[in-house]
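Translate sequence into structure tokens.
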Amino acid sequence: MATGQAKRSAIITGFRGSLGRSVAQAFLEAGYQVAGIARPAPSSNPKPAGLLELSADLLDLASIGRSVDTILDRFSKIDVLAHLVGGFEGGKYIVDTDEAALDRMLDLNLRTAFNIFRIVVPHMRSRRHGRIIAVGSRTAVDAQALTGVYGASKAALVSLVLTLARENIDQGITANVVLPSTIDTPANRAAMPQADPSKWVRPEHVASLILWLASEGASQTTGAAIPIYGAES
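Result follows.
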């Protein structure tokens, strides 16, 4: 980075999880100013040094707006939004799934993205520069039994991000979504003790892909849904 050049800045939503910590650390090590946004929650995970930690409800536009204002006061700009918030619910056939489960998946996997895009994108458009990366799921494009509402909500996220890319292609803003298969996290190991985690995707590999998509080298990559499946068939 050239002398006197302002550091690039990034927002990482959902930074408290295993993937979030890996992504935040990757951006910090790359020299970014990094703000993490997540719902208030106790966590035993250590916060990466240098991270600006903020609490917000991503289903509440006013709450998001307050956090983004704080980030702009501190960093003056937002170059990158890496949206990692999401959740999984499955194990039932569609005919046995209730409407509340659908609402939960749409809230976590679609509405959180929709809301923060509405707050952050106008700022990026005002500067004619920005990188948006969301984390989807392989299930969004490779449907699996017993994951109906989860897969549908992630497919909607993919459509939202790709539409965002089309709407901002002349504004210096890129928007892409990565589609990991099962990520090797403590939570997934606990939930699937019989599985072989050596075939799963490492969080640091997802973080590296997200970091590249935020770079100037990826300035002509937009509207892409990028698989990262590890060794899973």
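Note: The chain has a mean pLDDT of 94.
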